[in-house]
Amino acid sequence: xxxxxxxxxxxxxxxxxxxxxxxxxxxxxxxxxxxxxxxxxxxxxxxxxxxxxxxxxxxxxxxxxxxxxxxxxxxxxxxxxxxxxxxxxxxxxxxxxxxxxxxxxxxxxxxxxxxxxxxxxxxxxxxxxxxxxxxxxxxxxxxxxxxxxxxxxxxxxxxxxxxxxxxxxxxxxxxxxxxxxxxxxxxxxxxxxxxxxx
Length: 198
Fold this sequence. Notes:
Layout: E1 3-8, H1 29-36, E2 41-47, E3 68-71, E4 74-77, E5 103-107, H2 130-136, E6 141-147, H3 149-162, E7 166-175, H4 182-192, E8 196-197
Helix pairs in contact: 3-4
């Protein structure tokens, strides 16, 4: 089994001081850097939104961050403006050793569709290209770390399991937003899908 490391959204806006900070989001960076030494294939994902993205509460008059709206593809949480293309907030955390990565997958670039998963946008059909990359390299197993457990890590893990990969999530190298118990719900969903939680 050939295993790749997928490092999800370790970006300034998801770390303390960022626009959508995950509590303790920066704490995982040193451990991720150490873990990279165990892998030949390393992939980074990066939220990369255009300004005025449809998932931003600021794009919906009268709505506030964390309100829910219905999009053409289903329910969508509205977020504070974050990870705007080319901004400091969209950049990887300064401490992350990005030089070791062989691929960066940018997601959430379509103005009208959000994207949590490293594999598909939130319409569940528009592919990012990650699956094809992994297949051409003969990768059959994935270890996932990053931000946030209950959103992008969860969606990426569930899609990877559905696509047939053996998936492990290192909980010690993830952090959660944990909206109304969303971390526990995410971990239960991942376990039910056959994702190994370590």
